[in-house]
Design brief:
Helix content: 40-55%
Distance between the termini: 25 Å
Strand content: 5-15%
Structural class: alpha/beta
Largest sheet: 8 strands, mixed
Number of helices: 12
Radius of gyration: 19 Å
Order of helices and strands: EHEHHHHEEHEEHHEHHHEH
Shape: globular
């Protein structure tokens, strides 16, 4: 049996999966990461995946969001809204400083778990997927600092500037193509690692789901102006639905894929710095409801086998 954990992007709403995992971790004998053979995360989910791979507990990661989240998305809301028209809404330095505190000088290669973290190169138009050395062909990424990996996957356009690596490569948020990374995880598991599809179990965590609220009759004849404030919601919803559908078709038994992304209204935003406490409550409540259903699939069996990276 191979167990996979995937975590969506969602900015400060990453508090929800972080709180979910922290609550589950309180009810099992080992750290949450020790039960999974592969962890895949995009954007804020990539930060969580890196933390788990580098030995942090889910409680440590939740504390990171509670302590640093409001400072990362700080500033006068009116000033930020005005600035947003001309440049990135937020300075990336508070995020960088927070990541340095939690990851220090660790590299991707120091992860004790197989990790996959999507990003995107806007210069070439190609996806950029960070991976630990869990295949003999993966010979370079392990040297990259965890801070660089996190900044690149979380560089959400308009919110943060493009992150440029030391070699000049520009990277932006992996959510541009894999905000829900479950399909990426399945390709890695079945296509790269050659795990049998009938042995794969996936716990897929979202950062809440907001039902589409679109007046198609009004938007149908409109152009850029009419679609401007809705198009991001549409493509994120479509990408997540498509990714989940593809993953479901790759496994013989769909019951081996558990998707948890609580449906909420439109109250919560990617940068809602005042919502941390409420988001934590949502994640904890979802864990309480889900524990009995997911314990047998993910946490009652033996721990995941030790990961031995090929570069070592």
């Amino acid at each position: 049996m191979k167990r996979i954990l995937t975590i969506d992007g969602g900015g400060i709403k990453g508090v929800v999966p972080a709180a979910f995992l922290a609550c589950i971790e309180e009810s099992i004998p080992h750290r949450i990461a020790e039960y999974f053979d592969l962890i895949v995360g995009t954007s804020t989910g990539g930060i969580i995946a890196l933390g788990l791979g580098l030995g942090l507990s889910a409680a440590d990661i939740l504390a990171f969001y509670e302590g640093h989240g409001p400072r990362i998305f700080c500033g006068n809301p009116r000033f930020k809204s005005a600035r947003w028209w001309f440049r990135a809404k937020y300075d990336p330095q508070p995020l960088r400083s927070a990541l340095v505190q939690i990851f220090q000088d660790k590299t991707l290669g120091q992860s004790t778990k197989r990790l996959v973290v999507p990003s995107f190169n806007p210069d070439t138009g190609e996806v950029h997927v960070w991976k630990t050395s869990h295949d003999e062909r993966l010979l370079r990424d392990f040297r990259t600092s965890a801070v660089d990996v996190a900044l690149s996957t979380a560089a959400a356009p308009t919110y943060f500037p493009t992150h440029q690596l030391d070699n000049g490569t520009p990277l932006i948020d992996g959510g541009m193509w894999a905000n829900n990374p479950i399909a990426v995880a399945m390709v890695e598991a079945i296509g790269i690692l050659k795990w049998p599809a009938d042995e794969v179990r996936v716990l897929s965590l979202g950062c809440t789901t907001t039902p589409l609220n679109i007046d198609w009759g009004r938007l149908h004849p409109l152009g850029k102006f009419g679609w401007a404030d809705k198009i991001a919601d549409v493509f994120l919803t479509a990408q997540s639905s498509g990714a989940l559908g593809m993953a479901m078709h790759l496994v013989p038994d769909r019951r081996n894929i558990i998707r948890i992304s609580p449906v909420v209204g439109d109250r919560y935003s990617l940068d809602g710095r005042d919502d941390v406490s409420s988001l934590k409550g949502i994640g904890s409540s979802e864990a309480r409801k889900a524990l009995s259903d997911i314990r047998g699939l993910f946490f009652d069996g033996p721990l995941a086998e030790d990961f031995r990276p090929s570069h070592s």
